[in-house]
User: Which sequence fits this backbone?
């Protein structure tokens, strides 16, 4: 694991958090946490880096970043150099909390809850109850609102340094896929191949971008529905496909890429497989050509979904793309259909500096699923591929 | 990182969860989560091991364990062999959720929120709002209650296998301290010593029990207040103390131990240092002799706190001990004073099978703080030390 001892990214994100407030018509953003090594609000790694122990309040206004923390956390927070005002306490945070809010007197206070976006939903029910108790008999209780929009802008608008780390994570992922083209052979089990990826990750000092149980997902042959399943004893076989869903975390930032291998010569690729592959490859390109700042999430999903249906395949049962950053699923606008389980996230708008995945599968009659995933950065003109899109099936002889 | 591919512990904890229901007068325990790789309810690693992606419900009744999960998670959950009934969904969980609750018709449904205990407070505000929406127009909305007591019993009553993993984590921690007695020398920086501990952890294939930034905490000389601060360029010096707060995670279970080194001969130990050391050592022993099943948290804290005050020192500004398990701070009953920031947790009762730390510091006039921490298992008769208590200052020449 790469240990970050400097906090330049966290500092610039904390400053970005202050700047976005005005645009969102919010006077204060209030991050309210405790014992974050046990369950951390997902915003915390963006604007602090590290944990807080006792009940802690991070308050952002246009002109000041305030941290009220337990006395044992004070030195640690101070050493990061992110917060302007650091107030330690011992027995109870209540008094300082009310005092600081009274000093800043914000009219609208955004707190971290969201029905739609897990990345903006870091406040627990118990902590919310505590906050309501601490603020009773103050005017601030009735000034609380959701920070969903604020957090989505903050997470979504990647700084140059954030993009640079994601690029590096993508590059390392592609390097490992390149090594895999030399390692993978007919007759290996999914577990053997999974283990190879982990040796490469150790070697390159990165960790998996999601749950290590199924990162990478390795799917040999037509047996498994792609998803969140770990590797098995299934063996690679001549004439079969091999699917990967893989990402790494480099200095806290993720990649997320799917690749398809085929065992045999290019000339041996069955036409139903080739047709499926081209449909996925070209569907991703169609969406990439269409996406631009101002596009709405579900519109982008529709481009690929219509493309797939026009090609005669059943539509994929997930979203076309999610944002990528500190988290492999980084929240905010989703390039997904308007299904209930996605809430409002497909109605979000694409912005410059967002990083998205573009991914989907189609199902063949005899060879299982064919699925690809690329990573893109939204630019003023449209988008730039961060990954080098897979153009042909990677044939292993 | 040790990757667990078998789920025997999670299975036995899930079964324990069903058994505890009746005793707590609850008909169903309802765990309600999404995208847990981003923010996981702390109970999830106990009763699942691994992540869930879409909105997911794990429902425990006396006779059945039900998982309603996204279709891509189905195979992964099934392969663990923990749940009796696994129901996948695609577009929305709402219908299946209501259907399964109707089938079991529980009168009291415990959900994961708690003002006192972060380990029992895994439900987010947004997820709670979603649940209220899904259950409106059903009788179940008004049957929800806090699972705090249920979770505290489940986490706190360690199974034999859980205790065995904690023992192993403690053993590894003690081995690393033993190696450190040979490595540590006068003139090293805290960072050099911290790095040595991390090389040992890599070597022994364990990870840190808490935030890697300050695990181990390494405090050389009288300069720092002990707490959650990372290592610095402070150097070890003859006649000075060196303090460690260190724990490892072995197969998901934690140790948490503090040790004190002194640079010089035993005969060089200043009397104020020796007196402080003996006060801490003996205060811990006094609490250990007193603790037993049925004791209330704050009573145990009082034993050590009174001991310290009687010895003429200022009392420590934290709790005497916390539980230890999957988490370094494992929630439930706290051996702490009745301060507002600890909520109700010091009023909890000590039970057989609980694992606690016993830890505190006193402050010397010229040499900074002296602090120790041991790990104990509650037995029917009282307690057993899992760590070998430090009896004398470890002298480094």
Assistant:
């Amino acid at each position: 694991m790469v240990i970050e001892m400097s906090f330049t990214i966290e500092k610039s994100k904390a400053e970005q958090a202050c700047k976005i407030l005005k645009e969102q018509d919010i006077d204060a953003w209030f991050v309210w946490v405790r014992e974050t090594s046990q369950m951390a609000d997902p915003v915390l790694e963006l604007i602090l880096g590290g944990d807080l122990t006792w009940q802690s309040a991070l308050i952002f206004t246009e002109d000041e970043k305030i941290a009220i923390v337990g006395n044992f956390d004070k030195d640690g927070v101070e050493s990061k150099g992110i917060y302007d005002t650091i107030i330690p306490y011992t027995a109870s945070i209540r008094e300082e909390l009310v005092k600081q809010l009274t000093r800043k007197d914000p009219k609208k206070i955004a707190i971290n809850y969201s029905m739609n976006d897990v990345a903006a939903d870091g406040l627990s029910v118990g902590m919310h109850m505590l906050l309501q108790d601490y603020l009773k008999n103050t005017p601030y209780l009735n000034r609380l609102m959701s920070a969903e929009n604020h957090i989505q802008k903050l997470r979504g608008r990647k700084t140059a340094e954030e993009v640079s780390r994601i690029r590096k994570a993508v590059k390392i992922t592609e390097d490992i896929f390149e090594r895999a083209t030399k390692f993978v052979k007919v007759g290996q089990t999914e577990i053997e191949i999974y283990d190879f990826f982990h040796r490469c990750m150790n070697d390159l000092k990165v960790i998996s971008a999601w749950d290590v149980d199924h990162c990478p997902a390795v799917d040999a042959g037509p047996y498994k529905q792609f998803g969140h399943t770990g590797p098995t004893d299934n063996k690679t076989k001549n004439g079969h496909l091999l699917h990967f869903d893989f990402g790494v975390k480099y200095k806290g930032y993720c990649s997320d890429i799917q690749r398809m291998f085929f065992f045999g010569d290019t000339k041996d690729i069955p036409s139903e497989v080739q047709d499926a592959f081209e449909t996925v490859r070209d569907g991703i390109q169609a969406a990439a050509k269409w996406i631009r700042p101002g596009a709405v999430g579900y519109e982008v999903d529709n481009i690929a979904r219509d493309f797939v249906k026009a090609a005669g395949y059943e539509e994929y049962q997930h979203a076309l793309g999610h944002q990528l950053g500190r988290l492999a699923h980084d929240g905010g606008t989703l390039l997904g259909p308007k299904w209930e389980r996605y809430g409002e996230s497909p109605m979000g708008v694409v912005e410059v500096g967002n990083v998205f995945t573009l991914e989907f599968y189609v199902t063949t009659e005899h060879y299982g699923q064919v699925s690809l995933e690329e990573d893109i950065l939204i630019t003023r003109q449209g988008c730039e591929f961060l990954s080098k899109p897979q153009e042909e099936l990677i044939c292993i002889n």
